[in-house]
Inverse folding.
């Protein structure tokens, strides 16, 4: 079993997913070890506390195990697929607890934020994560805040508009400009957007 | 709510890929998309940009108990999947055993065809296995070349040795800058730490220690990326922390290098 685990270390994610589809627990364990940190980090960013984040990550990885056959390579990498599962389930959970979180987020949204600079201040250049952080670091804080409220906190554009007391058109415009700026960041370096 | 059309589609597509449309608008958007599949690629492309946000959070280490919990469920479910495959063969055997002799010849023929099919599949799998083995060997060789290159780079790079109580016990650890952007901590002969503990690297600037990576000594040489720049740092230290790491050191450094 341990030998097989070692052999799996050299397999690509797409090969491991095929094995997982056939019920191979060792292949799944290898995938888990490769991607659990990124998945948990995203879960933690969305849920904001450890136990709920672990529950979300567990839920997402069990979905990977049970639905490996639904992975489509043409839609993106295995890592992106796993993170999208974490994100979708996180959004579902956040929206089901939306009323409990609204007051707290309203306070955070109105307070001066050190988060963007603190969260994305480090300039790392040698990995996908670093490139993404670099791209996000170029966004004006008002655009980044709106992307974060939508993506990590699960608010709709209408809710963000109410939360920040901004016209809905402004919220949509900042979403559009923020996404466009991220894409332009990669294109200006001759790089494709990682998928 | 206004009717979905091309203009409205343009207006809402950014919120859609961020998962920020209210339920009714989302359904309306998806209906429009289903009716205009030529717009799907554009939405997928924009979705990939939004999906990049998933890579941005600061790294957090999940606890070892999470892995144990997930694998417990996975292993429990893996066994019935094998059992299902076994019971399928049992059913075929039962089916064949209770048929009358009139079907005997047909069954023999069926088994023959199945066996031939299985034989061919087996041969094909053997060939696929050989291809995979060859690919694995190529990857292994590529890995060895990369290791050798990395080792050469490390040898060419600057290294700073860490001192401290663990070094006194025989542990060897160095901070190595492979190039201006990549700095790693190479450690060997480190004492083991309990499962509920981990080693955490700190980059210290002034009096402020910044969490800069986690590793678990396993008796072998380990190389761990230092996730904060050491430019303008005063020291790099290693402490033993609870699994998952800490925001601030909770124990004295076991290894330390002043830069």
């Amino acid at each position: 079993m341990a030998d097989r685990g070692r052999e799996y270390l050299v397999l690509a994610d797409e090969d491991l997913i095929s094995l997982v589809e056939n019920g191979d627990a060792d292949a799944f364990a290898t995938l888990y070890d490769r991607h659990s940190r990124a998945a948990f980090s995203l879960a933690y960013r969305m849920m904001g506390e450890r136990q709920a984040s672990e529950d979300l990550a567990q839920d997402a990885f069990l979905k990977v195990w049970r639905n490996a056959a639904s992975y489509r390579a043409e839609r993106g990498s295995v890592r992106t697929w796993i993170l999208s599962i974490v994100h979708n389930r996180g959004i579902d959970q956040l929206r089901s607890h939306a009323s409990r979180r609204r007051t707290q987020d309203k306070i955070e949204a109105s307070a001066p934020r050190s988060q963007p600079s603190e969260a994305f201040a480090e300039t790392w250049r040698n990995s996908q994560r670093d490139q993404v952080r670099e791209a996000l670091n170029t966004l004006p804080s008002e655009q980044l805040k709106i992307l974060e409220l939508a993506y990590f906190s699960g608010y709709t554009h209408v809710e963000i508009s109410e939360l920040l007391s901004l016209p809905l058109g402004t919220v949509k415009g900042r979403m559009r400009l923020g996404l466009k700026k991220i894409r332009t960041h990669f294109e200006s370096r001759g790089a494709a957007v990682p998928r | 709510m206004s009717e979905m059309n091309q203009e409205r589609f343009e207006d809402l597509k950014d919120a859609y890929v961020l998962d920020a449309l209210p339920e009714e608008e989302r359904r309306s958007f998806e209906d429009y998309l289903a009716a205009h599949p030529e717009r799907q690629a554009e939405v997928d492309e924009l979705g990939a940009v939004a999906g990049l946000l998933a890579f941005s959070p600061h790294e957090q280490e999940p606890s070892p108990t999470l892995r144990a919990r997930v694998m417990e469920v996975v292993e429990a479910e893996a066994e019935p999947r094998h059992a299902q495959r076994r019971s399928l063969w049992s059913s075929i055997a039962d089916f064949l055993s209770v048929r009358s002799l009139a079907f005997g010849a047909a069954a023999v023929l069926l088994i023959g065809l199945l066996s031939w099919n299985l034989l061919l599949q087996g041969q094909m799998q053997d060939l696929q296995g050989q291809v995979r083995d060859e690919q694995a060997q190529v990857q292994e060789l590529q890995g060895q070349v990369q290791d050798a290159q990395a080792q050469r780079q490390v040898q060419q790079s600057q290294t700073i040795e860490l001192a401290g109580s663990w070094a006194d016990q025989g542990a060897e650890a160095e901070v190595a800058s492979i190039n201006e952007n990549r700095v790693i901590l190479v450690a060997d002969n480190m004492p083991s730490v309990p499962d509920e503990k981990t080693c955490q690297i700190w980059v210290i600037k002034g009096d402020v220690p910044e969490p800069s990576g986690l590793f678990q000594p396993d008796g072998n040489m380990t190389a761990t990326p230092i996730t904060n720049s050491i430019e303008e740092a005063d020291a790099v230290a290693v402490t033993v922390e609870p699994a998952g790491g800490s925001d601030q050191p909770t124990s004295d450094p076991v290894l330390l290098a002043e830069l």
Q: What stands out?
A: Residues 109-126 of chain A have pLDDT under 50 and may be disordered. Residues 1-96 of chain A form a domain with the Rna Polymerase Sigma Factor; Chain: A fold (CATH 1.10.1740.10). Chain A touches chain B through 70 residues (CB under 8 Å).
